[in-house]
TrEMBL record:
Its cofactor is Zn(2+). The keyword Zinc applies. Binds 1 zinc ion per subunit. It comes from the Eukaryota. It comes from Symbiodinium pilosum (Dinoflagellate). One of its GO terms (molecular function) is carbonate dehydratase activity. Reversible hydration of carbon dioxide. SUPFAM superfamilies: beta-carbonic anhydrase, cab. Its EC number is 4.2.1.1. Keywords: Lyase, Metal-binding, Zinc. Zn(2+) binds at residues 52, 54, 108, 111. This is Carbonic anhydrase.
Amino acid sequence: MERTNRAKEVDAEVGELGDRNKIWQKETLKVDPEFFTRIGQGQAPKYLWIGCADSRVAAENLIGGKPGELFTHRNIANMVVSTDTNMRSVLQYAVDYLQVRHVIVCGHYDCGGIKAACSVKDHDLPLESWLSSIRDVYRLHKDELEAIDCDQERHKRMVELNVIEQCLNLFKTSDIQRRRRYTASRPDEFPCALPRIHAMVFSPADGILRRLNVDYRKHLGDAISIYHLYDDPLLDDEVI
Ligand SMILES: [Zn+2]
């Protein structure tokens, strides 16, 4: 095939997206004629979703969601890195302006980012720099991980531990603590300290989203006083 024709085929791949959008837009209007009028007026999502950039784990797909339900940030291996101004800006906007009630960190099994970080290979910058934060998680849980004989099971546990560590990183941020302190001190207005932080893992192999328990006291241990930015007992009594 001539190169011009092959180039046309490549262009058609993008044209297909527009065609699929037209079908989706029509189908959506059939079910709910006012849908776009409604979401065109603004957003008020309950959830901030921090997920992996992997093409199989788009948040709305996993929960059968619609536009307007999730404020989303995605990066390689769903990391919460305190110096990442992209993630921090999303978090600040979600917490302070959208006032989301839940922040979800969702990892997934068969995660290429986790696998790359656990391999002995230099992936070059900037990827290598990003992976170093994941390697820190491995170092923190080395004993538990290396006691697992099966490679696949070790990978799955690493995915789970990484999600838990990213939830802890969220807890350490001033954005989360400030908002939780504010909401906890107003029981008439808010049912509990908000936003709640949740750890989840998706399995591409069976399509199931699982929730993980995170014991913040156990994981942060004695160091909790270092990360606890506000000296407020209301935070101590609350389940994160
Ligand atoms: Zn991934």
